[in-house]
Amino acid sequence: MAWFRKEVLSLIRVVDYGVGNIQAFLTLFKRLGLEAKRAVSPLELSDATHLILPGVGHFDHAMQSLNESGMRAELDRLVCNEKIPVMGICVGMQMLADSSEEGELKGLGWIPGKVKSFANNPVTAKLPMPHMGWNNLTVSPNTSLFSKESDLEPQFYFLHSYYFDASDKQDVVAAANYGMDFDAIVSRGHIYGVQCHPEKSHHWGAQLIKNFVEYN
């Protein structure tokens, strides 16, 4: 019954700033029975109980597109002042950081850290780029994103050449390995970042999304 009440009261807004496969997330939420709508303006963000910030491609292009969308200030208000739960996915996760080696623009700075290149790290420089395919996650204990029924090492789909390096490792929810361990999922309070693609990760991804909505 608790899940039913949460489902009725929740409205997920997927931030559509011209970068990311918005329809893939709307399709996933529909399949899960969760109400979700795209947001293309500050007004459409105002009724959100949860936010999804997708992103693909180059860091600076994503940040510039968000900055020019007219939604940046409202997102800052909702997340930083109103404490609306948000999940950044793929480049959307990287945008949560302070900066990225991929570009010159500042990130959102919601979770302290820097986005770094696998190619610039001597440990991973000779590996194929991008890091692409299925990978196990090593999950920290007592995180709301993974239910007690979830597998101990859930598998998620990745496609990226840059990774989030959290300044405070207490913010790291899960790690993956590509020549070295890297921060795959981070969270600080109500703010979450997911480098992998839950919309492409079968039941593991669906459960993560459901947990995000149910427990936040």
Automatic annotation (TrEMBL):
Major localization listed first in the record, in broad terms: cytoplasm
Gene3D superfamilies: 3.40.50.880
Biological pathway: Amino-acid biosynthesis; L-histidine biosynthesis; L-histidine from 5-phospho-alpha-D-ribose 1-diphosphate: step 5/9
Domain Glutamine amidotransferase: 46-213
Record carries keyword Glycoprotein: no
PROSITE patterns to which the protein is assigned, alphabetical: GATASE_TYPE_1
InterPro entries on file: Class_I_gatase-like (IPR029062), GATASE (IPR017926), Imidazole-glycPsynth_HisH (IPR010139)
Pfam families (UniProt xref): GATase
Subunit structure: Heterodimer of HisH and HisF.
Function in brief: IGPS catalyzes the conversion of PRFAR and glutamine to IGP, AICAR and glutamate. The HisH subunit catalyzes the hydrolysis of glutamine to glutamate and ammonia as part of the synthesis of IGP and AICAR. The resulting ammonia molecule is channeled to the active site of HisF.
Protein's name according to its UniProt entry: Imidazole glycerol phosphate synthase subunit HisH
Organism in which the protein naturally occurs: Pseudoalteromonas aurantia 208
Phylogenetic lineage: Bacteria, Pseudomonadati, Pseudomonadota, Gammaproteobacteria, Alteromonadales
